[in-house]
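Quick one: co-fold with flavin-adenine dinucleotide.
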Amino acid sequence: MRIGVIGAGMAGLTFAALIRRYGHEVELSERAADFSQTGYALGLWPMGSRVLNALGLRDRFEAVSQPAGHYRVRDGQGEPVVEYSLERIRAEHGAFGTLMRGELLDLLRSAAPDIPLRFNCALQSLIDDGHGVEAGFTDGSSRRFDLLVGTDGIHSTVRRLLYGDSPDTDTGWGCWVWTSDAIATERDLIEETWAARALVGTYPTRRTVCAIAGGASAVLGPTITGGAPDAIAAAFSELHDDACRVVSTFPADPAARFWWQLSDHRVKTWYRGRVALMGDSACAFLPTAGVGASMALESAAVLADELSRAELKFIERSLHSYAQRRQKRAEAAQDDSRTLAKYMLVDSRPLAWVRDRAMHFYSLDRMLASIQKSLVEPI
Ligand SMILES: Cc1cc2nc3c(=O)[nH]c(=O)nc-3n(C[C@H](O)[C@H](O)[C@H](O)COP(=O)(O)OP(=O)(O)OC[C@H]3O[C@@H](n4cnc5c(N)ncnc54)[C@H](O)[C@@H]3O)c2cc1C
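Sure, here it is.
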């Protein structure tokens, strides 16, 4: 089978490396010019890191990622609100580590460096004539595939070409994201401050610390603040000193930071004809529970598994099985991320006060129930 994979991110690279092992011919197309953008810190839950075992990457993942020990939430005054043991997750279920997105891309690419990958090559059209898929790219080229897999992220072109435009589910919040070596924090601690109209987080990797500063887009977004460090610092000045110190490392250089709108997306059907969606293109995640990449890796493993037994003539059956195995599970994890967002992104002080007290009773174990279930249930 000749398979075109659109987007060389988490899902695309993982799927390409896995499916090639079953003798299929696979090719990746990527809109970006290269992998040089390191991006942001990603936490991989054990269900995601397990997929790396299948690619022989387990030892290298452990060498390059920072084992996460604790997740702590503090209120605007710096008082601890909740603590969640990631050490326990690691002890009971397997590796949980954080690393930069670019580091994970390099790792995944190293599993199959010879798979053809065309950079600067964005998909812009597709025609599925029932016997194959004709794909057109921005570099003027076109390719014909037996199967096309859209792994092109939250703002997926493949999804748009299949189903038309559909709006993201937007929280109205966003966050500035950057890295700094000057942030002093415990290496194995993921820490967030949840205040009214403000969110600050630190996510250490082995080499640096990724930070976020979030709030209502209408107050903190690029069109309002322009990303000016003074404006960002002023927006968080009422928070406790540690949070202010984190925000003080916000870089003046626009190339060293980016704004991420906190929105997600869900699609009704994960495939149509000979085109499948995978990862964020099918079910995009808020970063709140840090599980989008893990779900993308799992989906890659499942589609590769289904295609390992597929017959081209009945390809839609395999895609149907893939969607049946994946959609509910991914959407349940997405629901957990949405629940967490409701607690995390609070606009008023009274609500934040109530939330902080409620958090003592409504535990993270409950908020993350589906994600925790997926650690032990078969995919
Ligand atoms: C700030 C932030 C923090 C996050 N933290 C976590 C975390 O801690 N843990 C976690 O699990 N998840 C986290 N996520 C979410 C996670 O990054 C995504 O869920 C995951 O990357 C999805 O993988 P993907 O392969 O579907 O998409 P992506 O990794 O986004 O890859 C999509 C790729 O497709 C390419 N592309 C787009 N359009 C086209 C086109 N038309 N043609 C060709 N190529 C195209 C893009 O350039 C990109 O390389 C975070 C996200 C953000 C923004």
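If it helps, Residues 6-12, 29-32, 40, 42-43, 122-123, 151-153, 157, 177, 260, 279-281, 285, 287, 290-294, 296 surround flavin-adenine dinucleotide (CB under 6 Å).
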